[in-house]
Specification:
This protein is α/β, with parallel strands linked by helices and about 290 residues long. The protein has ten helices and seven strands. Strand 1, helix 5 and strand 2 form a beta-alpha-beta unit. It starts with a helix and ends with a strand. The chain binds S-adenosylmethionine.
Length: about 290
């Protein structure tokens, strides 16, 4: 099922760059299996819209919180392997509403503690923003999604160096992860500089568009935040048109000032050094 889903979703962009340095390759073997988000046969939450993320906290039906993460994981991947096809991957405490292990992914059950909220960064690149967010908010769970293996390895070095307990990684296409999540489970989603596709003829490659905004609207809680950034004026215009036209989102901010808790990535800093001006867009899920 997952393979079928992935075949139908073409991913534009690189999965691999230069060979990983030995230390990073080792982390891919040792740390990634411990923090990797696994998705089993997927359909999103069987329940209808869930109003509040608190419904997901406090317990899991179908996934034992006693079972350690590593017990649920398959053997670690081989060094430098391509992570394109993944093996398998609530707290309303009502068993009827709670997604079961084989029916969906409970983001609150991914951590060794029950997070007060869960946030997702899509296309985290080198992971600087994600790691800084996680370090500043230790009671919040963070999921990061990135198919570029070198970026994943870079994030892992930060997770290890800062001993971050609240980061989980899906090393693949965010659309597969989004479709596996239950409704209304995320407090915040970040999509930062995800779309290097300024040409109009490549518009269908862009992550921000109606289809993915629908996905994001489904998984965000009411009042949840979607943060977008780009330093290409045409893309900023595209993103604001797409998001402003979406019935589930209300614009809270659109301009050149980063949110107060923002940590620039190397990519963003390089753009600023090259004279580009970032645009930050912040939306609230109705
Ligand atoms: C230009 S880089 C920016 C990285 C990072 N957000 C930053 O600001 O430094 C865009 C990233 O988005 C990732 N990306 C693109 N499409 C994606 C998708 N469908 N799912 C997850 N990540 C994606 C790419 O792999 C790439 O690393």
């Amino acid at each position: 099922m997952i393979e079928e889903q992935q075949k139908s979703k073409r991913l534009f962009g690189r999965r691999k760059g230069r060979p990983l340095r030995a230390g990073r390759a080792l982390l891919m073997d040792t740390l990634l299996p411990r923090v990797r988000i696994m998705i089993s046969s997927i359909s999103p939450s069987p329940c209808g819209r869930v109003e509040n993320a608190s419904r997901f906290r406090g317990g899991v039906v179908g996934v034992s919180t006693q079972q350690s993460l590593s017990e649920r994981m398959p053997p670690p991947p081989r060094k430098n392997c391509v992570l394109s096809t993944l093996p398998q991957g609530e707290g309303d405490l009502s068993p009827a509403l709670a997604p079961r292990n084989d029916e969906g992914l409970n983001p609150f059950a991914l951590f060794d503690f029950v997070p007060e909220a869960v946030r997702l960064e899509i296309g985290f690149g080198g992971g600087e923003h994600l790691a800084a967010q996680a370090a500043a908010n230790p009671s919040v769970g963070f999921m990061g999604c990135e198919p570029f293996i070198n970026g994943v390895a870079k994030l892992l070095t930060q997770v290890e160096a800062q001993d971050l307990k609240n980061v989980r990684v899906y090393p693949d296409d965010a659309r597969v992860l989004l479709d596996a999540l239950p409704d209304s489970c995320l407090a915040m989603c970040f999509v930062l500089y995800a779309d290097p596709w300024p040409k109009n003829r490549h518009a269908e490659r862009r992550f921000i568009g109606r289809e993915n905004l629908d996905r994001l609207a489904r998984v965000l809680t009411s009042g949840g935040q979607l943060r977008l950034a780009t330093d290409v004026a045409g893309l900023a215009q595209w993103m604001r048109e797409q998001a402003n036209a979406h019935p589930s989102f209300v614009c809270l901010y659109d301009g050149p000032n980063a949110p107060a808790d923002w940590v620039p990535t190397r990519y963003e800093q390089k753009g600023i050094a090259a004279g580009r001006t970032p645009t930050y867009l912040v939306y609230k899920r109705r």
